[in-house]
Specification:
CATH superfamily of the largest domain: MFS general substrate transporter like domains
Order of helices and strands: HHHHHHHHHHHHH
Number of helices: 13
Oligomer: single chain
Largest sheet: none
Helix content: over 70%
CATH architecture of the largest domain: Up-down Bundle
CATH topology of the largest domain: Growth Hormone, Chain: A
Radius of gyration: 20 Å
Structural class: mainly alpha
Shape: globular
Length: 230
C-alpha cells in the first residue's frame, strides 16, 4: 500500500516532466491555442478516468488518471504563460503573466479546502474530488474557441501577417498597432540568428552555468519557504 501510494503521488511529477519536455515542439508545430484546446481534452479524460475509478474498483485507473493529469499540467504551465503574455497588450503583459501565479496558488488553496473530510474528502465523495480537475478544463474548452491564435505565432511561425493583424484587432480593438507588429518582426529576426539549445546542451554549456545554478537554487528553496504549509 505504501508503494502504491508513493507511485500514485509521484507519477504526477513524471507526467509533468514528459508534458513540459514536449511543449516547445507542439507549440511550434500546432500553435498555442490548438495545444491548449487539446490539453483540455486530455485533462477532462483524466478527470473522467479518476472519477470512475471507485465504480470500477480499479486503483490502476487512478494511476493512469494521475499520470495524464501530470502530462496535462506539464503542457499547460508553459503554454498558458506564453499564450497569456502574447495576447496581452504591452502595458498589461506583466500584470497578465502575474495572474497566472495568483490563480495557480488559488487553485491549490481551493483544492486543499475541497479535500477536507467535511466537503469532498469523505469516503463517498472523494471520486468527485478527483474528477473536479476537469471542471476548469471544461470551462476553458468552451470559452477558448472565441479567442484568436497568438499573434506572434501567426506572424513568426506561419508568416500570416494579415491573420496577425486580425488577431491583434480582435484582442486589442481597432487602432494603429504597427509598433507591436514591428516588435514581433524584430523578435523573429533575432530568433533566426539565435541557436535554440536543448536541455542537455543548456546543462553542459559553460556560459550559462551560473544562471543555471541560480535557477536551481531559487526553485529548490521555494519548496522550503513555507508556501506549502500556508
Amino acid at each position: 500500500l505504501l508503494f502504491l501510494w508513493s507511485i500514485t503521488v509521484s507519477i504526477f511529477g513524471i507526467g509533468g516532466l514528459l508534458g513540459s519536455s514536449g511543449s516547445r515542439y507542439l507549440t511550434v508545430k500546432y500553435g498555442k491555442k490548438k495545444c491548449l484546446l487539446c490539453n483540455n481534452l486530455l485533462m477532462i479524460a483524466a478527470a473522467s478516468i479518476m472519477g470512475c475509478s471507485k465504480i470500477a474498483q480499479s486503483f490502476e485507473m487512478i494511476l493512469i488518471g494521475r499520470f495524464m493529469c501530470g502530462v496535462s499540467a506539464g503542457l499547460c504551465v508553459p503554454l498558458h504563460h506564453q499564450y497569456v503574455g502574447e495576447i496581452s497588450p504591452r502595458k498589461l503583459r506583466g500584470f497578465a503573466n502575474s495572474t497566472s501565479s495568483f490563480f495557480w496558488s488559488l487553485g491549490k488553496a481551493v483544492g486543499q479546502i475541497s479535500g477536507q473530510r467535511e466537503l469532498l474528502g469523505s469516503q463517498s465523495l472523494w471520486p468527485m474530488l478527483m474528477a473536479s480537475c476537469g471542471l476548469p478544463a471544461l470551462v476553458q474548452l468552451v470559452t477558448l474557441p472565441f479567442f484568436p491564435e497568438s499573434p506572434p505565432y501567426l506572424l513568426m511561425h506561419k508568416g500570416d501577417q494579415e491573420g496577425c493583424k486580425k488577431a491583434i484587432r480582435q484582442l486589442w480593438g481597432e487602432g494603429h498597432h504597427q509598433a507591436e507588429i514591428d516588435d514581433i518582426m524584430k523578435e523573429k529576426a533575432t530568433m533566426k540568428n539565435t541557436k535554440i539549445l536543448s536541455v542537455l546542451e543548456l546543462m553542459t554549456e559553460r556560459a550559462f552555468r551560473w544562471q543555471l545554478y541560480m535557477i536551481v537554487i531559487l526553485t529548490a528553496t521555494v519548496q522550503l519557504c513555507g508556501i506549502n504549509a500556508v
